[in-house]
UniProtKB/TrEMBL annotation:
Origin: domain of life: Bacteria
Quaternary data: Tetramer of two alpha and two beta subunits.
Gene expressing this chain: pheS
SUPFAM superfamilies from the UniProt entry: Class II aaRS and biotin synthetases (SSF55681), tRNA-binding arm (SSF46589)
The Aminoacyl-transfer RNA synthetases class-II family profile domain, residue ranges: 116-337
Enzyme Commission (EC) number: 6.1.1.20
GO biological process annotation, one example: phenylalanyl-tRNA aminoacylation
Family to which the UniProt record says this protein belongs: Belongs to the class-II aminoacyl-tRNA synthetase family. Phe-tRNA synthetase alpha subunit type 1 subfamily.
Protein name: Phenylalanine--tRNA ligase alpha subunit
Organism: Chitinophaga barathri
């Protein structure tokens, strides 16, 4: 035992004189004294050869030595990640790296601009859940279970009986607001929607919408047209043509679709406008009386109009982008182009 104690005293002197300069020297110390095959573990292994009456005394010596070795290691722990080497090679005269500023996504830019335009007209923002039930997404909007118009909004069902699904439009938010019965109503409903569609340059399985709803007494189709004329002029400027086409939507009557001359090809024809020179930007119409009644609103006293537009399509026209898939690919080369548009 006395020989082992003498060895321990020699090791203590070595530890006291230890002054590492690099992380490598510190690691060598750890391996030699504290590693799985280090001296501390080896000395504890000598306990079995110590007489029983001396085990307590020898154990105290070993514990003291172990604490000394660990304590010395922790004094230089800042060297473990090479901090000393890094600081030794730092040139403090070099210019610092500038912070890179991010940019808003083009969808967010267009969404915010559209919201600001409608806010000037007195519209407020309403939001709702993306996972909806069948009543708010379809039935309340005059889309019965077997209505053929449901085929145009094939979606992703989460649960059947009762039906829960990913909403196909933000019209479900309009239903929820109408059910509250606080009239008049003047809202826009921006948000993400989902449809089971083939992904292409013009379509995706998810996209973003802004829908609007205005319900009060004596609301007319003329109010709808002037609202939308104001929006497109504020959003796109005045160097384009506008047309309304009669259409059909189960939740509006009469219904129309609004087109503008294609801003990408100037009306000459391209893949975005399907070589017609016109691009549909939204659908609209007067709220169907049955929809009002479904939501507890007296259709003989109140009338209203509704409209809905895809934000991706507005963005494609605004910035002359020819492929809708670019919005969801997270390609920084594409996104950095909008840094000046924040």
């Amino acid at each position: 035992m006395e020989q082992i104690v003498q060895q321990i005293e020699a090791y203590k002197q070595e530890i006291a004189a230890f002054q590492p300069k690099t992380a490598e020297e510190l690691e060598q110390y750890r391996i030699k004294f504290l590693g799985t095959k280090g001296l501390v573990k080896a000395l504890f292994g000598e306990m079995k050869s110590v007489p029983n009456e001396q085990k307590k005394e020898f154990g105290q010596v070993l514990n003291s030595f172990k604490l000394l070795a660990e304590g010395r290691y922790e004094e230089f722990e800042h060297l473990k990640n090479g901090a000393a080497d890094a600081s030794a090679h730092q040139d403090l005269t070099l210019p610092g790296e500038p912070h890179r500023l991010g940019t808003r996504h083009p969808i967010s830019i267009v969404r915010n601009k559209a919201i600001r335009i409608f806010e000037r007209l007195g519209f407020t923002i309403a939001e709702g859940p993306e996972i909806e039930n069948d009543w708010h997404n379809f039935t309340a909007l005059n889309l019965d279970e077997n209505h053929p118009a449901r085929d145009m909004q094939d979606t992703f069902y989460v649960h059947n009986n009762p039906d829960w699904l990913l909403r196909t439009h933000t019209s479900s938010v309009q239903v929820r607001v109408m059910e509250e019965g606080k009239l008049p109503i003047r809202i826009i409903c921006p948000g993400r929607v989902y449809r089971n569609e083939t992904i292409s340059a013009r379509a995706h399985c998810f996209f973003h919408q802004i829908e609007g709803l205005y319900i009060a007494e004596n609301v007319s189709f003329a109010d709808l047209k002037q609202t939308l004329y104001y929006f497109v002029q504020e959003f796109f400027g005045e160097n384009f043509k506008v047309r309304f086409r009669p259409s059909f939507f189960p939740f509006t009557e009469p219904s129309a679709e609004m087109d503008i001359s294609c801003l990408i090809c100037g009306g000459e024809g391209c893949n975005v406008c399907k070589h017609t020179g016109w691009v549909e930007i939204l659908g609209c119409g007067m709220v169907h009386p049955q929809v009002l009644e479904n939501c507890g609103i007296d259709s003989k006293k109140y009338t209203g109009f509704a409209f809905g537009m895809g934000i991706e399509r507005l963005t494609m026209l605004k910035y002359q982008i020819k492929d809708l898939r670019l919005f969801s690919e997270n390609d920084l080369r594409f996104l950095k182009q909008f840094q000046g548009a924040v």
